[in-house]
Structures are given as C-alpha cells and as structure tokens.
C-alpha cells in the first residue's frame, strides 16, 4: 500500500522536476473538467468521506522493478452513484498506448495469476477478449510518451471500493494489469489479443485505512 506521502516521494524519485510539473498540469486540467462536471451535476454528497485505495505497479518480466503507482478514490454523488476516480503514473514502458484494466485477483507473480478482467455477477464473463469492452474492470488506454512516461486519469462507475456486489475489495481482491499492446476495444468481437494481448505490468490494489 502506498500512502499519499509515499506516492509523492515515489513520483519525485522517478521523474524530473520538469516532468513532475508537466504531470501536475495535465492532472490539474483533468480535475478542472471533473470539477465542472460535478458542479453542473449537483455536486458530490458530503455524507461520507471518500474511500481510497492504491497500487504499486511492477514489471511482469522482472517483478522487482517498480514501474509506477496508482491511486483510486471512491465518492458518492447526490444521485447515490458511487464513482471511482483512477490516477496512474508509470515510467519505463514502451512508447505508445497500452491497455489498462482491473483484473479479478490480487496476485501479480506471475502476472497471469491476476486472472481475467474483473466482471462479477451471474452474467460475468472474465475472458479478456470476450464481452470486451463491457467488463466491470475495463478502463481506457494509458498513453506513454517517447521518454517512457505515461499517465492515466479516468473515472468509472462500474466498480466500487466500498462493500457491495461490484467491490474490488472482494474475497480474493483485485489488481491492475497494463498490457503490452493497445486496447482496440474489440469492435469485431472476441478476436484474440484485441484487449491488449500480453501483460507488461501488474499492481495489487489495497484499500487505505
């Protein structure tokens, strides 16, 4: 688990000051858009504070190498919808887009032990290339620049951090997987590799106290 202080220390240890400023600027833009959306949708409920989780992202080939970190925050809207924001930063992946998903098991050694895409329920289908991009754990691509630096800022209402049928904190936990290739979102159905193919990095998701 990585606290806010550890998160900041990791970012400053892996990224130059210029890179940190650039990432902060991009994050600020994302948060500004999100904030405007919240204002026009009636704001977030203040009944309870946010639920938070984090993950340290490690290389699938050499599991001793940390490539990045991720932070998750669940907040409840006035309409009662639980919305989870995801912020991920990585350094060391090949340039280009990489598929990023929430997988069904909190295990990264080997990366295949994280199982399929998180998709609970009686109609769930965890096969990565099947039912894609309609799994509960499906996210957008993370884009890595020429320096190997990538960041992802997105939100989802398909999962929760708090208890419930869509909770990532279920009996066997969950994990992030970043894939070698981009996610095409499988427009032609279950074509092998359409959801990103081989696994490049993995991070076990842990709730923060």
CATH class category name:
Mainly Beta
Q: Helix tally?
A: 2
- CATH architecture name: Sandwich
Strand content: 25-35%
Walkthrough of the structure:
By secondary structure, the protein is α+β, with helices and mostly antiparallel strands. It has a single domain (4-207), classed as Immunoglobulin-like (Sandwich). It is 17% helix and 30% strand. It contains 2 helices and 9 strands; from the N terminus they run ααβββββββββ. The longest helix is centred in the first third of the chain and has 24 residues, at 17-40.
Question: Could you outline the blueprint of secondary structure elements for this entry?
Answer:
Blueprint: H1 4-14, H2 17-40, E1 51-59, E2 66-76, E3 82-91, E4 96-98, E5 100-103, E6 142-144, E7 149-156, E8 175-179, E9 199-207
Antiparallel strand pairs: 1-2, 1-9, 2-3, 3-7, 4-6, 5-8, 6-7, 8-9
Compose a concise summary of this entry.
This protein is of the alpha+beta class and 209 residues long.
For this entry, give a set of tags:
209 residues, alpha+beta, 2 helices
């Amino acid at each position: 688990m990585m606290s806010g202080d550890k998160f900041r220390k990791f970012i400053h240890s892996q990224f130059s000051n210029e890179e940190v400023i650039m990432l902060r600027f991009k994050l600020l833009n994302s948060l500004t858009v999100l904030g405007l959306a919240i204002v026009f949708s009636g704001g977030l409920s203040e009944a309870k504070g946010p639920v938070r989780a984090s993950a340290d992202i490690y290389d699938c080939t050499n599991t001793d190498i940390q490539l990045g970190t991720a932070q998750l925050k669940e907040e409840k809207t006035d309409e009662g919808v639980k919305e989870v924001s995801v912020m991920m930063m990585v350094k060391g992946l090949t340039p280009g887009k990489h598929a990023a998903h929430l997988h069904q098991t909190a295990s990264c050694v080997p990366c295949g032990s994280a199982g399929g895409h998180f998709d609970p329920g009686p109609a769930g289908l965890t096969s990565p290339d099947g039912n894609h991009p309609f799994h509960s754990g499906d996210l957008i691509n993370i884009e890595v620049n020429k320096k190997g630096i990538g960041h992802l800022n997105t939100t989802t209402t398909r999962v929760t951090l708090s208890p419930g049928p869509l909770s990532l904190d279920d009996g066997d936990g969950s994990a992030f997987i970043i894939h070698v290739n981009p996610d095409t979102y499988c427009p032609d159905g279950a074509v092998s590799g359409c959801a990103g193919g081989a696994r490049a990095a993995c991070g076990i998701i842990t709730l923060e106290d």
